[in-house]
Amino acid sequence: MSAIALIDYGAGNLRSVHNALVAAGADDVAVTADPDVVGQADRIVLPGVGAFAACMNGLSAIPGLIEAMEQRIRGEGAPFLGICVGMQLLADAGEEHGRHKGLGWIGGTVRAFTPAPGLRIPHMGWNDVVPSFAHPVLAAGEAYYLHGYHFADAAHVAATSSHGGPFTAAVARDNIVGVQFHPEKSQAYGLATLERFLAWRP
């Protein structure tokens, strides 16, 4: 059994996330697109960079992968971490380059930041993570963000940040947690977040 399945669907910063997981204490990380490996993993991590539609298409193009994720995560309760677009894919839909269906595990829609005078888009750099409630994986601090879209009207907001107004920094439901920030780029805070995920027993 592979301790962690780091899903490779052509849309994630895999090397950096892999190295960060190892630095956080993971001793068995399989970078994989194999549904059989995903179906036996203790924990599953879904990274993601780029456009929502391209990431969802990449995930959907691998036969049996979404079904294996559904079974292992939602059916059997394996701890799951979505990072950046990997978190956004949990939504019902994303509106980048048209409206596209997401995994639908957590209600909400991924929308663009609303342009405003003096507001830089994409949102890039260090910003707060303010937990909405106590969660074993999440803590207050500062993390690194890089995104032009955000998880709007999320059903299970676990932390917020602010860029021209509040936005969803993390979502959490049962054995599922997703973060908009990049733990692998967030230095000590990001490493501590991954350590908490590895220790999490939902």
From TrEMBL:
The keyword Lipid biosynthesis does not apply. Its EC number is 4.3.2.10, 3.5.1.2. The keyword Nuclease does not apply. The active site is at C84, H182, E184. GO terms for biological process: L-histidine biosynthetic process. Pathway: Amino-acid biosynthesis; L-histidine biosynthesis; L-histidine from 5-phospho-alpha-D-ribose 1-diphosphate: step 5/9. Keywords: Amino-acid biosynthesis, Cytoplasm, Glutamine amidotransferase, Histidine biosynthesis, Hydrolase, Lyase. InterPro entries: Class_I_gatase-like, GATASE, Imidazole-glycPsynth_HisH. IGPS catalyzes the conversion of PRFAR and glutamine to IGP, AICAR and glutamate. The HisH subunit catalyzes the hydrolysis of glutamine to glutamate and ammonia as part of the synthesis of IGP and AICAR. The resulting ammonia molecule is channeled to the active site of HisF. HAMAP family: HisH. NCBIfam families: IMP_synth_hisH. Heterodimer of HisH and HisF. This is Imidazole glycerol phosphate synthase subunit HisH. It comes from Sphingopyxis terrae subsp. ummariensis.
